[in-house]
């Protein structure tokens, strides 16, 4: 068995990068980036690609009722809960090649290192690719991981339809048949992993700005989504005096000013975004009848989210520019704090390569947000250029990814040698 | 010849109202209101309807190169410039039955009263229906009146196309052939009227709120239109810290706050409307890359409009929430002040029926805005319910319209007896 510090050092960085570039060809777009909508043809090919890679490492391939794919390297004690490493292979419609795939390929690199170094370990090690993390074809996302962690029921997930009216269930049935035909084993019983580790690109600008290639992630911000309707009265822009107006745009403007003030009363970790906004009838010389907009509100502390939730609801009870307001919470995901021991282990692993690495809270969702409710979970981030993701321009530096994958292997090696329960 | 005060009193209110209801059947919508897009089948039928009405009163029918239709009651001195009365018979796609038609039918009622009372007058009296006031099928509107007044050239007007790719010129050619086939005389020479009078619904709530059936209009507000682009950078709503954001929505919000403050520094006659607003990419969890919105700015005083124009341009030079701004003036129509003597004459005529009538500035465009550059011009408004127009719910009270049409006849009679130049 290697020493605690060596699994990362033994990792074959060339092979890791060539695997990463290899998967990037599956669903590649002509101008760069890729398109691998969940359970589509390219996404299914990516599953088979992963299975092939696992077979070459003498791992068995498994899938479950949601199409999550697992590569299993057996442990000396097969009955122990596995160390689980992974992320997702599906993508947004016009995506970069790293978001999701990096974490799966990194898991593969850990399996390969264990295999090449002939590491004996008590507990099994599994690499997973979760189904439909992105939610781009079937909303909402993280279907596979949320179901696996018992956070959502399969029926609701299977009923979702894509824009062409194809049901999740229909696409999934094809996928499962394909996996079966290629020799993957169906796993009907639930598995509670010992640990879940996920490496992902940051999708934000902080690591790049700090010159850090990678870091441990201590948790995931909570996210509350709202849809707000401001209802006024359409009227002629020229003939309606100020005092007679029920201008839904001006009502929305005033309300948003108050929402911003409520946000400003908290710390600078609040993320407050109005990303969708529409007016009706949307005509240059007609006063708006209705304004509709969304709010995306995030913070790592549930108390702050709940305080703002209360403030928003109070503000929505008032009239703004003689318009009424209807505010509806459309989604509430509580913040998750990752396992403290795992955070320490990953932080130590990263700092073996990058002593100045910070600790970040993730601003984006990841499959780990659900796994954290099932087993000790933590994440690593690697830096990405200008925080760009969900776009073919998404870019990471090879040297940064190298640090991140070695830190992951380092931590995995440490967990396999020190945690034997 | 009747006394100055009697032409309005002699007017046949029953017949006026039945004519108004009669025209409302041309292009009527099943659920109420009408659809008479300019130069379409219903609009052309409305022209023929008007010609028939004129023939029954021994008026000759004329049309010009833009399809404007004139009914002429000859004067004792045919070489004198005519007293011109009218408005338009075309409509918005889903319109009320009064916007435009009221002013044409009112002119017809004046012709009928002159005929029934066998009034002899020196100058001819003409009633006009202008082509394409609404601009709903071919933008911009007021084609017939602006060309007639020498404010726009025919070539540009004729080149406009509707949503089906049909050119104004093509639709107009059919219309002119139809008018010719029905015996209207083509008028190739330009005519400068002695006076233009237009009765129109207010399209605003002021008269109704004041309990006044009608009033004189002293001018038309100037209207400046702008398109504003705020350019930021799309990014992830969860992962992008406040300090790294170039949030185009927040930039627009801050800029609009400053625009509102600039407006508030002027009197309460300013009309400031943001009726169109759009975000790109318009996604709940993506910081907006771009916000685009329109401004509709109106005031009766050109100095105020120009001061605000300067202020808006200054504000657009600054960055707002780390976003740049591009502001473009897309239309500038200067305010028009109507002829003072005509205002007095119409005011006196209205006050014969309604002593408490106010004087209003029109917030909407009308054909009169162009005629005012050609000859002494003024308007009357009649009250409309809740200021609603451009909608089948548009409504006027019969009693209010009766006052307005009698005031128009009163003023016409007075002009015919006192102005003999």
Automatic annotation (TrEMBL), chains A, B:
<keyword id="KW-0378">Hydrolase</keyword>
<keyword id="KW-0862">Zinc</keyword>
<dbReference type="Pfam" id="PF07687">
    <property type="entry name" value="M20_dimer"/>
</dbReference>
<protein>
    <submittedName>
        <fullName>N-carbamoyl-L-amino-acid hydrolase</fullName>
    </submittedName>
</protein>
<dbReference type="GO" id="GO:0046872">
    <property type="term" value="F:metal ion binding"/>
</dbReference>
<feature type="binding site">
    <location>
        <position position="99"/>
    </location>
    <ligand>
        <name>Zn(2+) 1</name>
    </ligand>
</feature>
<dbReference type="InterPro" id="IPR002933">
    <property type="entry name" value="Peptidase_M20"/>
</dbReference>
<dbReference type="GO" id="GO:0016813">
    <property type="term" value="F:hydrolase activity, acting on carbon-nitrogen (but not peptide) bonds, in linear amidines"/>
</dbReference>
<comment type="similarity">
    <text>Belongs to the peptidase M20 family.</text>
</comment>
<feature type="binding site">
    <location>
        <position position="99"/>
    </location>
    <ligand>
        <name>Zn(2+) 2</name>
    </ligand>
</feature>
<dbReference type="Pfam" id="PF01546">
    <property type="entry name" value="Peptidase_M20"/>
</dbReference>
<feature type="binding site">
    <location>
        <position position="200"/>
    </location>
    <ligand>
        <name>Zn(2+) 1</name>
    </ligand>
</feature>
<feature type="binding site">
    <location>
        <position position="88"/>
    </location>
    <ligand>
        <name>Zn(2+) 1</name>
    </ligand>
</feature>
<dbReference type="InterPro" id="IPR011650">
    <property type="entry name" value="Peptidase_M20_dimer"/>
</dbReference>
<feature type="binding site">
    <location>
        <position position="390"/>
    </location>
    <ligand>
        <name>Zn(2+) 2</name>
    </ligand>
</feature>
<feature type="binding site">
    <location>
        <position position="134"/>
    </location>
    <ligand>
        <name>Zn(2+) 2</name>
    </ligand>
</feature>
<dbReference type="InterPro" id="IPR010158">
    <property type="entry name" value="Amidase_Cbmase"/>
</dbReference>
<keyword id="KW-0479">Metal-binding</keyword>
<dbReference type="InterPro" id="IPR036264">
    <property type="entry name" value="Bact_exopeptidase_dim_dom"/>
</dbReference>
<feature type="domain" description="Peptidase M20 dimerisation">
    <location>
        <begin position="219"/>
        <end position="319"/>
    </location>
</feature>
């Amino acid at each position: 068995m290697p020493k605690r510090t060596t699994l990362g050092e033994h990792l074959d960085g060339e092979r890791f990068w060539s695997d990463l570039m290899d998967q990037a060809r599956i669903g590649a777009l002509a101008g760069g980036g890729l398109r691998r909508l969940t359970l589509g043809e390219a996404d299914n090919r990516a599953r088979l690609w992963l299975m092939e890679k696992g077979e070459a490492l003498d791992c068995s391939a498994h899938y479950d009722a949601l199409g999550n794919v697992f590569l299993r390297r057996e442990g000396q004690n097969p009955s122990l809960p596995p160390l689980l490493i992974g992320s997702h292979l599906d993508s947004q419609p016009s995506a970069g090649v790293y978001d999701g795939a990096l974490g799966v390929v990194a898991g593969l690199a850990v399996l390969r290192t264990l295999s090449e170094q002939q590491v004996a370990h008590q507990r099994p090690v599994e690499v997973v690719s979760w189904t439909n993390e992105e939610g781009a074809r079937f909303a909402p996302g993280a279907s596979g991981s949320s179901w696996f962690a018992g956070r959502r029921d399969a029926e609701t997930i299977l009923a979702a339809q894509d824009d062409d009216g194809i049901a999740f269930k229909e696409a999934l049935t094809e996928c499962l048949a394909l996996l079966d035909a290629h020799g993957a084993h169906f796993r009907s019983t639930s598995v509670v992993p010992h640990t879940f580790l996920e490496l992902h690109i940051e999708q934000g600008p902080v690591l790049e700005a700090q010159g850090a290639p990678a870091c441990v992630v201590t948790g995931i911000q909570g996210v509350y989504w709202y849809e707000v309707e401001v209802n006024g009265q359409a009227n002629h822009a020229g003939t309606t005096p100020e005092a007679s107006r029920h201008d839904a745009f001006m009502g929305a403007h005033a309300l948003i000013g108050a929402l911003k003030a409520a946000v400003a009363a908290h710390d600078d970790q609040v993320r407050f975004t109005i990303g969708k906004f529409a007016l009706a009838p949307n005509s240059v010389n007609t006063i708006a009848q209705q304004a509709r907009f969304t709010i995306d509100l995030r913070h790592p502390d549930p108390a702050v989210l709940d305080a703002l939730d209360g403030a928003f609801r109070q503000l929505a009870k008032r009239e703004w520019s003689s318009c009424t307001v209807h505010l509806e919470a459309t989604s509430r995901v509580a913040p998750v704090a990752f396992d403290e021991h795992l955070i320490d282990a990953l932080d130590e692993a990263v700092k073996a390569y990058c002593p100045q690495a910070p600790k970040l809270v993730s601003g984006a969702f990841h499959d780990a947000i659900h796994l954290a409710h099932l087993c000790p979970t933590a994440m690593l981030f690697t830096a990405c250029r200008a925080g760009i993701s969900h776009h073919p321009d998404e870019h990471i530096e090879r040297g940064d990814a190298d640090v991140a994958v070695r830190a992951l292997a380092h931590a995995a090696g440490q967990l396999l040698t020190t945690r034997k329960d």
